[in-house]
Amino acid sequence: MTKFTDLNLNAKVLKAVVEAGYESPTPIQAGAIPPALEGRDVLGIAQTGTGKTASFTLPMLSLLARGRARARMPRSLVLCPTRELAAQVAENFDTYSKHLKLTKALLIGGVSFKEQDKLIDKGVDVLIATPGRLLDHFERGKLILSDVKVMVVDEADRMLDMGFIPDIERIFGLTPFTRQTLFFSATMAPEIERITNTFLSNPERIEVARQATTSENITQGVVMFKASRKDREATEKRKLLRMLIDAEGDKCTNAIIFCNRKMDVDTVAKSLKKYGYDAAPIHGDLDQSQRTKTLDGFRAGELRFLIASDVAARGLDVPSVSHVFNFDVPSHAEDYVHRIGRTGRAGRDGKAIMICVPRDEKNLEDVERLVQKPIPRFDNPLGDAAPAQEEAKAEAPAKSDDKPKRTRSRSRKSDTPRAEKAAEDKPNVEAAKPEPKQEAKPEPVEQPAEVEKTEAAPAQDEQKSNRGGRDDKKSRGGRGRNDKRGGNDNRVVGLGDHTPDFIGLSFRERI
To answer: What EC number(s) has UniProt assigned to this enzyme (predicted)?
Structure first.
């Protein structure tokens, strides 16, 4: 078996590795370190949790052991998609470079530019950054990339998902053509392959596992869930999550719970806290200090449940995570591989459970197609909600049938006199109604003597007749506004208990 002593690492780097407790490299490390030490470009493809960070950290430190950086001109550059991953890479450099006199700087968002500028001005051997913050420093004239000798792109497929590919291409253009490039990704999308063909020169390709495979020591399962009612889906889904956690018992020492949306991250975290679970959220909208505090507490074992968006799905190294719960089926199938890769690390056993609602079944098919195997179905602790839903659907038509029948029977009994009255008044209304297309003013109809200025009911009847017989519609349905107000037919809709004189005059003019 290959050991680190067989990889020709710098003696001081090797000493730090031994002190960290490592003897044998992982397959990706054994494949990537030798060509990297020879100065060749490397294209590494491996599933998450296989030790990719050390596979570029160790050869970089060995190559940078000699020499010194100049002000604002870093000697090496590591690009990471998220702040958490960048901070983790920085910790790895601290671990393996403690016997070397090398300097580093971490450029991430959410931190003051001032402190970062001070480090850059002194000159750094290793610059670890997210693409956005790196370009911010460059555009402010604080950074020069013409002296970069080794460039690393970590989690390139996540860069693609987050829309960083244009920034990556720009950064490649700012670095020297003679640089050495170490490119690592868990999957090889067509866009990623295009970049490697463009910017890597005859790379050594190391693929230690089939693309987008999951670790064999992770027990996977999916619970098919259908809510009893649509408006109760979110509540019942959170209840199902709590039941799944309780069913694992003491085996679930800690867990990461992934949600697709940031608002769901906060909601699930609040719900778990309400029911006495030790949980905290982490996503991109939180302050960097809060994100760091939450993540440190989870790593230290002070926090049991970390509710996360995909910002925490890539590269976070917490070796002792026992479970991963996917509260939602990921929209991108590749994210499933990275999410469940947070458990079962470093040879440990892990368990990944996913909740799937009917609308996510297509995404579940995409995941199974990607990993090329079906995910076992687990029993739903809530039971099958479908019978209750079908029963509700069966009752709905009966209620809807009864309602119109009652309405029609009422209108026949109670509204017949009104219908007869409307039929009696209809000839007078027809005669009083002017022809719409006739230009000449119609002959006035003789008004009965009984009509007074303030009499509202005849005017109301004529007005409603001119508007298309709304009285008939109300009499058929029995739901007129006058009926709701106590059956006073003399009231005019919208005018209160009496009709103003000018309204009556307007009706007289029409007659």
So the answer is: 3.6.4.13
For residue 325, what are the CA distances in angstroms to 248, 302, 315, 483? 11, 19, 17, 57
Which of 94-108, 170-184, 286-300, 496-510 shows the lowest mean pLDDT across its residues? 496-510
40: pLDDT strictly greater than 50: yes
Each residue's pLDDT tens digit, 496-505: 556 667 666 6
Tokens linked to 146: 């013409």
Average pLDDT of the segment spanning 59-85: 91
- The superfamily in CATH containing domain 218-384 is P-loop containing nucleotide triphosphate hydrolases (3.40.50.300)
Residue 179: CB atoms within 10 A of its CB come to 18
Strand partners, 378: 223
CB atoms within 10 A of CB 340: 31
Which residue, 238, 259, 232, 83, is CA-closest to 155? Answer: 83
Q: Is 286 exposed, middle or buried (0-12, 13-18, 19+ CB in 10 A)?
A: buried
Q: Which residue has the higher pLDDT, 361 or 52?
A: 361
Are the folds of 4-207 and 218-384 the same?
yes
The pTM of this model reads: 0.63
Domain locations in the chain as residue ranges: 4-207, 218-384, 415-436+444-510
CA distance 351 to 273: 23
CATH class, domain 4-207, is: alpha beta
Question: Residues in the chain, how many?
Answer: 511
